[in-house]
Amino acid sequence: MKKGITMKKGVSGLLAILMVMSVFLAACGDKGAEDQGSQTYDPNSKLELTWLNVLHTASPPTDTIKNKIEKYTNSKITFNWVPDASKEERITTALASGELADIVTLTMMTNSSVRSSLKSGLFWDVGSYLDDYDNLKKIPPEVRNAASIEGVLYGVPFQKNLARAGLVIRKDWLDRLGLKVPTTLDELYEVARAFTEDDPDGNGKKDTTGFGDRSDLRYSSFKTLSSYFGTPNGWKVDENGKFTPEFDTPQYLETIKYSNKLYKNGYISKDFAVTAKTDQQQQFAQGKTGIYTGMVDITNLRNLSQGLQKGLELVPVNKISNGDGKYHIWSEGSGVGGLLAFPKSEVKTEAQLKRLLQFVNDLIDEEVFMDMTGGIKGTHYEIDNEGAFRIINTDLWQADVQPFASSRPSEVTYTLKDANPEKELANQLIKENNKFAVLDPTVPLDSVTANEKGTELEKIITDATFKFIMGETDEAGFKAAVENWKNSGGSQIISEYEEAYKKSKK
After folding, report:
1. Which of 45, 228, 248, 420 has the most CB atoms within 10 Å of its CB?
2. Which of 22, 25, 73 is nearest to 47 (CA)?
3. In this predicted model, what pLDDT tens digit does every residue of 267-307 receive, in sequence order?
4. What are phi and psi of 257, to 5 degrees?
5. CA 388 to chain CA mean position, Å
6. Contact 193, 267 (CB under 8 A)
7. How far is CA 112 from the centre of its chain?
8. 493 phi-psi bin (left φ>0, alpha ψ -120 to 50, beta other)
9. pLDDT over 50 (residue 191)
10. What is the pTM of this model?
C-alpha cells in the first residue's frame, strides 16, 4: 500500500515535472512564434508613425486633411515639417545626428550626405517588398531603377512626371505691349526687357522686372534656361562612355553669359541670390515680376494674386529653342521626386516596415489621392458637369490641403481634368515634355567621392556661377573654378562615374 502510495506520488511528481516542462516548452514555442511573428504584420492594425516631411508652403496645414488620411489608413501621424528653403541644412543635420522619423522624405537625391546615408545602411532596402502591395507593385521598373543606387532601392520612389519645368508668363502684359508668346531665347530676352522697361502694368512707374528668381540654380530660371541652350542634364556621356559635367560644356557657359546679361540690365531680380521660393512667388503675385520658372505652380500663382492683380492672364510655356527649332528640358530625377525612406533606427523590425509600406500604399488609393489633391468634395473642390476639377474655396484649400499635395507618393497614378484652362494647359505641356526631356545619366550610378564630398565640391561651381551672373567674376575666373573642382576631387568623380557606367552596361 505504501509502495502504491509512493508510486502514486512518484507519478504525480513526474506529471508535475512534465507539466512544468510543457509550460516551459510552450513558452519557448510562443517566444519562437513571437520572433517569427515579428516578420508578419496586420495591415489593418492601428499605426502610430512620425513623418519628417518637406513643407512647400509658408505654413503647415491644419488637421482637416490629416484627420481624413488617418481615418482611411487607420493611423496616427505626427508630422515634423521642414521648410523647403532650409531642407538641405535640416535634412543633412538630421541624418548626421540620427534624429529621424519612421518615414523620412528625401528629395535631394544628388546630395552627397543623403547618398552617403543611404549607402551606409541607415535605411531599409524596400526593393523586394513593393510587389506585395497592390499600388506599389505598379511602380514601373524604370522608375525603380532611377530611384536606386547601384541596384538597391532605399525607399518608395515619389512618382512624378518626367519633366515639369517650364515658364509661366503674364499674358496680359504681353498683350498690352503687343508681344507674342516667346518661342526662342532671343524672343524671351526681349520679353524680359520689355517687362522691365516698357511699363507692362500701365501704371506709369518703372516698378516691374522681367524674371523673378530665387537662390537655387536647380529650380530657378538658370537650370531651365540651361536646358533651352542644350546643356546636358547634370552630365554628358558620349558614345565611348566619357563623362563631362554640365558646367564644363559650351552650353553652360552660354547660359551664364545670357543670365549675366539679364542681370546686368536689370531684367532679372537683383536680389535673386537671397530670395526664397515663397518670396519669388509673392513677387509674381504682387505684379512685381512677369516671368516665373515652374509651370507646375501656375494655380498657386493665380491663387496668391487674388485681390492683388486685376485682369491677370497667365500662359504656361514649355518650348523655347536656342534658335535651331529643337527643344530640350531637364528631367527631375528621371520621373523620381525622391524617396519615402524608412530608417532602421526607428523602424526596427520587418513587421513595422511592412505596416509602414501598407500605409504608403494606401496613400496612393484614389480616395486619399483626392484628399491630398483637392480636399473635401463640396468644401474645397467640385467636379463640374464636364468632369473637370475646380477649387471652390481657395483660402480654405490653401490652409487645409495645399501642403499635402507635394507629399503624395504618386502624382501620375490618376489624371484630373482641370477646370482652370491655364492649369489644364500646363498639365498637357508637362506631358508633352516627355518627348524632349533630357535625363541625367548618373541618377542610377554611384561615385564614392561624390557621396563623400560632392555637395562640398558643388558649392565651388554654384558660387562661381552666381558670381559670373552678378558680374563678380569673368569667363577666366569661372574656368579656374572648374579646374579647382577637378583638382579637389572632381576628376575622381568623373572616373568613378565612368567606371560605374561601364559596369552597368555589362
Report:
1. 228
2. 73
3. 999 999 999 898 999 999 999 999 999 998 998 899 899 88
4. -65, -40
5. 26
6. yes
7. 16
8. alpha
9. yes
10. 0.75
